[in-house]
Amino acid sequence: MNRKLVLEAPERSADGSGGYTETWATLGMVWAEVTARSGSERQVAGVPVSRVSYRIVVRGAPEGSTLRPSPDQRFREGARRFVIRAVAERDPRGQYLTCFADEEVAA
Questions:
Q1: What is the distance between the alpha carbons of residues 59 and 30, in angstroms, rounded to a whole number?
Q2: Contacts of 106 (CB under 8 A, 6+ apart)
Q3: pLDDT bracket for residue 107 (50, 70, 90)
Q4: What is the pLDDT of residues 51-69, one digit of tens each?
C-alpha cells in the first residue's frame, strides 16, 4: 500500500429543469496498491479515448462504513480518476478489498 487515494461518492442535486447535476463528495483517504490490468482505445465524438483497467487493493472496512468502497464511487489521485466497477473481498476475513476500476483519458 504505497499510494494515497481519495475515495469519492457521487451526489445528485435537482437542477430545476427536471434533471440533476452531479458533484463528487470526499468520503476519506485510503492507502492502496494500484496495478494496471489491461487497456484499450476508442473514438468518442471523433476524439481518441484510452481506457485502462486497474486492480486497486485497499484495507477492508466494515459493511456500512463510509471508507468501504462500492461500485460507481471513484478514487482520485491528483487529476486522475478511477471509477470503481466492482469490489470483492480479497481474503476470507475481509482484511483487504480488491476494487476493479477504470480510468479514462481523452487524448
A1: 8
A2: 44, 47, 48, 49
A3: low
A4: 899 999 999 998 889 999 9
Angle at 36 between CA 29 and CA 5, to 5 degrees: 10
Sign of the four-CA dihedral 93, 72, 102, 31: negative
For 91, phi then psi, to 5°, come to -140, 160
Residues 6+ apart with CB under 8 A from 63: none
Cell numbers describing residue 53:
483497467
- pLDDT-derived band at 91 (thresholds 50, 70, 90) equals confident
CA 95 – CA 39 distance, rounded (Å) = 28
How many residues does the structure list for the chain? 107
